[in-house]
Design goal:
Shape: globular
Number of helices: 6
Oligomer: single chain
Structural class: alpha+beta
Strand order of the largest sheet: 1-5-4-6
Strand content: 15-25%
Helix content: 40-55%
Largest sheet: 4 strands, mixed
Length: about 160
């Protein structure tokens, strides 16, 4: 498992984002870049108002629509994911290609890990086809305890 995109190297992540946006003809404005950088620097998923509070350190006049517009752009470009169960955002591990993601969300420490399991995707796709269901979104969120929290709970 890999942690979210932004937990690796923030400068590298921002460079990848700039290259992808430029290649797609999409404009990664300074404020959009700042919102992505905030998510890169965070070790936890952030809600829009958490992002706004951090953005205001650099852009004191920032308002909620600024953050929401930036997040919408970043979502459209596949650079971040929205975790519905947390109403929060994380950077994408694989922004260079479209994919359905699975997330492991620890209820203990709040860590979120993004998976890209082709077998989960195939199984879900088969189940959807069998039911005749057309999904708008195929993001899977699994909550539980990470290894570290499980071991602490068990006193290991």
């Amino acid at each position: 498992m890999k942690p979210g995109l932004c937990h690796t190297n923030c400068q590298q992540t921002l460079g990848v984002a700039e290259r992808l946006c430029a290649g797609r003809g999409a404009r990664l404005t300074p404020q959009r870049r700042q919102v992505l950088a905030i998510l890169c620097a965070s070790q936890k998923p952030l809600g829009a108002y958490d992002i706004l509070d951090l953005l205001k350190r650099e852009v004191p006049a920032a308002k909620p629509p600024t953050v929401y517009r930036a997040l919408e752009f970043l979502l459209q470009q596949g650079l971040v994911h929205r975790l519905e169960s947390l109403n929060a955002y994380v950077g994408c591990v694989h922004p260079d290609h479209p994919h359905a993601s699975q997330f492991l969300i620890c209820r203990g420490c709040g860590e979120v890990r993004e998976l890209e399991s082709q077998s989960v995707e195939r199984t879900l796709g088969s189940a959807l086809r069998a039911c005749g269901f057309k999904a708008d979104s195929r993001v899977v969120e699994v909550t539980g305890r990470c290894l570290r929290c499980s071991e602490q709970e068990e006193g290991v």
